[in-house]
UniProtKB/TrEMBL annotation:
CDD domains named among the record's database cross-references: beta_clamp
Gene source species: Candidatus Paenalcaligenes intestinipullorum
Ranges where the DNA polymerase III beta sliding clamp central domain occurs: 132-245
Residue intervals of the DNA polymerase III beta sliding clamp N-terminal domain: 7-120
Protein name, entry field: Beta sliding clamp
SUPFAM superfamilies per UniProt: DNA clamp
Family (UniProt): Belongs to the beta sliding clamp family.
Alphabetical GO biological process terms: DNA strand elongation involved in DNA replication
Length: 369
């Protein structure tokens, strides 16, 4: 029975959308598979890892029948990528195998029962529902995601906090050493809701979102969050736990500020980082009369020194930082200049903000060099 007939590129589009969450290592064999469900012209592609589920659809089904099967996701994707972009590709079901045919190329792939494919049960009622422009949500993810923890035993740090308020959607991430915060204006939320979205979901959404004004519909229910945009629906379980009080971490009383060119600072830090060690990524920042000095050294007694001119007229300050934390933020913002706010105490954190964005805040704790 023929299921699909389409060009190679038309087939690749929905497959590349969903295959990102398919785990290479899995406990259930069927989790390596993709669910293909055909309802007449409509063909749905579904992938899940039991925590996140992505569904996308296209209209290239053949016939009026309703058919469903599952097939190894990455094998199918690799085959389609390797096929020449000439003529149409057909997918057919024959004797329990999915037949992929294009020109004189023919592949028979093993399938597993569609009824055994695990799908996430959705809440009967969503507590929060709103729309956000794709480019705004993508910007929130881009300017905050790098501060998420990775495999921290404090599991609630391995994700991003979403705070839904009456006029703002805030995103916050921290790994205990730095914290990133941003927000965008929203409508339609009556009371505050805080949820923690898993790291994998955040990274997947970042990959899928575009720099467009089209809306992303966000729904939050009991233990789940759902994103719908274009032909894509992504449902994710939420992380349980109490996220740290981010408002207490963000300094509000810093009185010493200076602007610095982002690209110049990024270049100086990248060069200094060459002479840091993998374990100790420390650089020394010295603020003095109208200058910022960056220095780094290693066990081989090699040294790097950089100097930048800044509008700083306060008493000197000598403080150490993990250079990766500084480079992360500079790589994910696009502003020409960033603003630093400091205290005279070398044990105090630094606050990095943007001159034209009141919502973005990045706090970095110092380190001993």
């Amino acid at each position: 029975m023929q299921l699909v007939q389409a060009t190679r590129d038309a087939l690749l589009k929905p497959l590349t959308t969903v295959v990102g969450i398919v785990e290479r290592r899995h406990t259930l064999p069927i989790l390596a598979n993709l669910l293909i469900r055909k309802e007449g012209r409509h063909v749905y592609f579904v992938a899940t890892d039991l925590e996140v589920q992505i569904t996308t659809q296209a209209e290239f089904g053949v016939g009026d029948e309703q058919v469903a099967t599952t097939v190894a996701a990455r094998k199918l994707l690799d085959i389609l990528r390797a096929l020449p972009d000439v003529g149409n590709v057909t997918l057919s079901l024959t004797d329990g195998k999915l037949i992929v045919q294009s020109g004189r190329s023919r592949f028979a792939l093993q399938t597993l029962e569609a009824n055994d494919f695990p799908t996430l049960a959705q809440p009967e009622q969503w507590q929060v529902s709103l729309g956000v422009a794709q480019k705004n949500l993508k910007h929130l993810f881009a300017t905050v995601h790098f501060a998420m923890a990775q495999q921290d035993i404090r599991y609630y740090l391995n994700g991003m906090l979403f705070v839904f308020e009456s006029e703002l959607l805030r995103t916050v991430a921290t790994d205990g050493h730095r914290l990133a915060h941003n927000a965008t204006v929203i409508e339609g939320v009556e009371s505050r809701h805080d949820v923690i979205v898993p790291r994998k979901t955040v990274l997947e959404m970042q990959r899928l979102l575009g720099e467009v004004d089209d809306q992303v519909l966000i729904d939050v229910g009991s233990g789940q969050i759902r994103f719908r945009f274009g032909q894509v629906e992504l449902i994710s379980k939420l992380v349980e736990g109490k996220f740290p009080d981010f408002a207490r971490v963000i300094p509000t009383s810093y009185s010493r500020h200076f602007l610095i060119n982002r690209e110049a600072l990024q270049g100086s830090l990248q060069r200094a980082a060459i002479l840091t060690t993998d374990k100790l990524r420390g650089v020394r920042i010295q603020l003095g009369d109208h200058h910022l000095r960056i220095s780094a050294s290693n066990a081989e007694q090699e040294e790097a020194n950089e100097e930048l001119e800044i509008d700083y007229e306060f008493e000197p300050l000598d403080v150490g930082f993990n250079v990766s934390y500084l480079l992360d933020v500079l790589a994910n913002i696009r502003n020409e200049a960033v603003q630093w706010s400091v205290q005279p105490d070398s044990n105090a954190s630094v606050l990095i903000t943007l001159p034209d964005d009141e919502h973005f805040k990045y706090v970095v704790m110092p380190m001993r060099i």
